[in-house]
Amino acid sequence: MILAAGRGERMRPLTLARPKPLLDVGGQALIEHHLQALAGAGYATVVINLSWLGEQISATLGDGSRFGIDIRYSEEGPEPLETGGGIFRALPQLGPGPFLVLNGDVWTDYPYAQLRDRLHAGDLAHLVLVPNPPHNTKGDFVLRAGRMREGEESERFTFSGIGIYHPDLFEGCRDGIFKLAPLLRTAARAGRVSAELYGGDWLDIGTPERLAALDRRLRGG
């Protein structure tokens, strides 16, 4: 699943008339880079959630045939459901087993194919963390011995927006607006969340300046 329903408020004015996943970077839409990477890693079906200007996304990407994958859409209406609510709404399309979720506003060369074997029996989630960037120096989650745990701020790393989740992570949830992080912290306290630190190429495309910098890099400037 690619999370693509946000309003992209930090990217304004670029996102006033175009959803953030369709912003051009390196000669094509940001979300198209993700679809090509997922298809190259062997993923056959991708669910994309839609809200803010979502009709532009579905009109641009269609059924996914030109990427060699099957794209399905999860409609959220005019108000985005946040990360947790968006994934929960899409669960019927994601199937009964573990699934990959990717934030639509990141850039990375992470090898998605290797994630298929990362969720161990009994775990509810596996997260990909990255070294803390300048805009998130305090990090998000503690990583210790391959597990997400409670701990000191010095042990925190930044959540990359890439994770594998089991549908049972959302047991007891109801359709509506809610965040993913509290579910992950609850599961981590029960010892059911693994994690890894990725040191490769990763960037949170959260501002026009970061988007422009990535565009220059991809175009060789």
User: Total number of β-strand segments?
Assistant: 13
Distance between the termini: 32 Å
Mean pLDDT reading:
92
Which shape, going by the Cα principal axes? globular
- CATH homologous superfamily title: Spore Coat Polysaccharide Biosynthesis Protein SpsA, Chain A
Major beta sheet summary: 7 strands, mixed
Helix content: 10-25%
User: What's the CATH architecture?
Assistant: Alpha-Beta Complex
Per CATH, the class reads Alpha Beta
Radius of gyration: 17 Å
Number of contiguous helices: 5
Order of helices and strands: EEEHEHEHEEEEEEHEEH
CATH topology: Spore Coat Polysaccharide Biosynthesis Protein SpsA, Chain A
Q: Please state the structural category.
A: alpha/beta
- Strand portion: 25-35%
Poorly predicted runs are none
Number of domain modules: 1
Kindly describe this structure.
There is one protein chain. With 221 residues, this protein is α/β, with parallel strands linked by helices. It has a single domain (2-218), classed as Spore Coat Polysaccharide Biosynthesis Protein SpsA, Chain A, CATH 3.90.550. The protein is 24% helix and 26% strand. It is built from five helices and 13 strands. It has helices spanning 30-40, 54-61, 82-94, 181-189, 208-218, and strands at 2-3, 24-25, 28-29, 45-50, 70-75, 99-103, 106-108, 125-130, 141-144, 147-149, 156-165, 193-197, 202-204. Strands 1, 6, 8, 9, 10, 11 and 12 form a seven-stranded mixed sheet that branches. Strand 2 and strand 3 (28-29) form a beta hairpin. The mean pLDDT is 92.
